[in-house]
Amino acid sequence: MKNKITVIFLSLTAYAVFAKAQVPVREEPRHVPVLQNKYFRLLDVRLAPGDTTLFHIHSTPSLFVILSRATTAWQEKGKEWVKDTSVLGRSWYRSFTPDALVHRVCNLDTIEFHVNDIELLSSYQIASDQSILPFDVLFDNDKATAYRITNISAASKIIENRGPIIAELISNSLVYFHDDLSGAEKQIIQGKYLYILPGTKFYFTPVNEKIDMVLFEIK
Questions:
Q1: Domains of the chain with CATH codes
Q2: CA–CA separation, 152 vs 204, rounded Å?
């Protein structure tokens, strides 16, 4: 009996230590690396209702996009919880240098909380005279430009000679990506991403009259 109690105590102690542990964001179990190359690491973050992440460390310049509407709370280590309601399609950039962030997130809602965290690993060095694409600009800095496409005619414009691009479909069940040089066609499903290689000549066509996409172009 004594041995059994000892085992239970040690197990609970180990769990408590694990629960308080802080890990790099890429090692946090709910931040799943789904695509990595020399330019970026894309973490697909899905948090079930009632679930809470481990404390994790953001220390790499990163792009973010919200892919679901959910009520959440986040806690920076050593501070109080802050309640928040996610806005579908909200996108932002944070350098995390030198202000590394250690925090955890809890899903207070009855639906899944879904966000993509794109860690920027190296630059592409596009031409200094590169023009802004013909879409709405969400932000533009020395690391990346973020665009939002809500106009079908804008989506159908042919784009070419650009840097690495990550396309995220915010709403609309399906959008087709067309490679104008090879003739290849790919589907982008709502809540999913598509990586577009540098130099690709492309355009999009939605399956219905509405489109809402976010494009991140890495510089």
A1: 20-120 (2.60.120.10), 136-218 (2.60.120.10)
A2: 9
48-57 per-position pLDDT tens digit:
999 999 999 9
Residues 204, 112: Cα–Cα separation, whole Å = 28
Averaged pLDDT, 86-113: 96
Give CA separation, 111 vs 70, 71, 108, 130, 142, in Å: 7, 9, 9, 41, 35
Rounded CA separation 118/33 (Å): 9
Residue 132, SS3 per DSSP: coil
- Bridge partners of 145, per DSSP, are 140, 217
Alpha-carbon dihedral sign for residues 21, 60, 118, 92:
positive
- Amino acid residing at 69: R
Q: What is the pTM of this model?
A: 0.88
Residues in the chain: 219
What digits encode the pLDDT tens for the residues 14-67? 334 444 579 999 999 999 999 999 999 999 999 999 999 999 999 999 999 999
